[in-house]
Amino acid sequence: MSTLRDYADRIEQLARELGLEYYPVDFELVPQNFMLEVAVYGVPVRMHHWSFGVRYIHQLLHQHMGHSRIFEVMFPGDPCRAYMMDSNSLAENTLVSAHVIGHADFVRRNALFARVMAMAGGRIIEQSAARAHRLEDALARHGQQRVEAVLDAALALEPHVDINHELYRAPYPAPADPQRPGTGDRPPRPHQQHHQHHEQHHQHQPPTAVSFQRRYQGLPGEAPQRVREPPSRPLPPYPEQDLLWFIARYAPALQDWERDIFLAVREESFYFYPVHACQIMNEGWASYWHARLLREADFLPHELYLQALKAHSDVVRPYAGEQQLALAVNPYHLGYSMWERIIDRHGLEAARRVCAEEDDFGFIRNHLDPELADELDLFSYQSRKDGETRVLSRDINDVREAILGPKYNYGAPCIAVERMHDDGGLVLRHDHARDGRGLDLDQADQVLNYVCRVWRKPVTLHTVDFRGVARTLTLNQPVP
Length: 480
Known about the structure:
alpha/beta, 53% helix, 3-stranded mixed β-sheet, 480 residues, single chain
């Protein structure tokens, strides 16, 4: 009787025959509680924090209520790591193995994944474990209260990185000192050299003291050159969106172990960014390939194929449960539908170019057309505080932006460091025009309190509220 390993090996062979290219994949069967921990922590071994326990309970409740089910978790890298639930059926895990190979092919091709992997390395689990060990050392040396306060602040700012910069950034370049006259930085001008030579020539026949005084008596003289200090350069030299990096690098009183926590959280945020920014493309690509691989795997028993096909339908359906209206896009369904359309119309090689060059922003804007949006019944909507939900628009541009809106900046508001004052005070500014929304002031106050704990100087945030009214929040010291 064939086993999962037999089917997975033959599916991998079929995948290579169909032109899939991917890093090796290490598969592992794990129990449900391990899978839940991986889902909420992001990686199997990560820095411990109370917020992950809250996420665990949330995920557990969702699963028990039938709102979500985790078939697998896959970590891009070289090799890729894939965990499958040991309680899945043989048919489900056969589908999962094909799905993971689709993910691995996407990761190998996509430029954003390639760039981040080149910076962060392809061994996220080992790196995450090393960071967790360093945190345990910090806990032993400095105590849970101090360490948790720093981790609170770092995780509160977890989305606030700038992926356009390098992962391992150097400090801002120091301003060059301006050339100052009279300091010997420049060689003397030619006529000055001639004058010096002339004076040296006459040193053997010095003029009398009287004639020397007369010679220079009529000259107006010069005021001594005042040495000017180089102008101070503002810090940062431009609005800095990478809050984790700026605080780790420039916070006036952070200790090395505290900076290490901030930089560790930033590294993990960089690693997970392509997963977030390419979710629709990636899940759709993996779903297209698991469907095609199963369809062409003539070695699968008919009954197992039908069961796997049922699991495929559950994965890519547009609605949750028996609902006939979805207020959240299923990335599997949307991505799968778009890839099928691209491949049908333009061919597999064109699809692979899109896979290599785009992220979800380009994918949705360039390839979600009005016809497909109508077929999928997509629309933008508004939910009011009184519980009423109403359709706002079916215009394709509104639909695209409604899908992409939560993806900007990891879904977090665009906040940048505007200025660090000479006394160490920090000024942050919310780019509400770019965000298109104001802030929840209570939540902003809490995050500002986290920042103030680690900055240890006054912190000010300029923003607007949900009505668009300008607001300035300032904390001189953290609230206990």
